[in-house]
Design goal:
The chain is of the alpha+beta class. The protein has two helices and seven strands, in the order ββββαβαββ.
């Protein structure tokens, strides 16, 4: 098992038996709107997947947590520009109270390596 960017509470990613498990990714700049926060999160997912020598075309599952389902359409517009065509993962989108009230989105992905 490999752990990446491990801290006292969690690792940003663990890889085990050819599968990468990312922790929930949130925007670093929480002042951004939903489009900006979604772009930041997707960029971070790309960066972490690259550390494990994989990419978004190998995402098996995505769990998207939105603070407000009113942001669903805008988030989907950004997601659809980013996701690999013909390699779209299984996905769930849930409305949730996120740990920081400024966060609008958190995404968890699992990917093949």
């Amino acid at each position: 098992m490999d752990r990446y960017e491990t801290g006292p509470r969690m690792s940003e990613m663990t890889v085990h038996h050819g599968v990468a498990y990312l922790s929930g990714q949130v925007a670093e700049d929480a002042s951004a709107d939903i489009a900006g926060q979604t772009e930041q999160v997707l960029h971070e997912i790309d960066r972490l997947l690259a550390l494990a020598a994989t990419d978004k075309s190998k995402i098996l599952r995505a769990e998207i947590y939105l603070a407000d389902m009113g942001d669903f359409q805008t988030m989907n517009e950004i997601w659809e520009k980013w996701v690999s065509p013909m390699h779209t993962p299984a996905r769930a989108t849930i409305q949730a109270m996120l740990a920081n009230p400024e966060w609008k989105i958190e995404i968890v992905v699992t990917a093949a390596v």
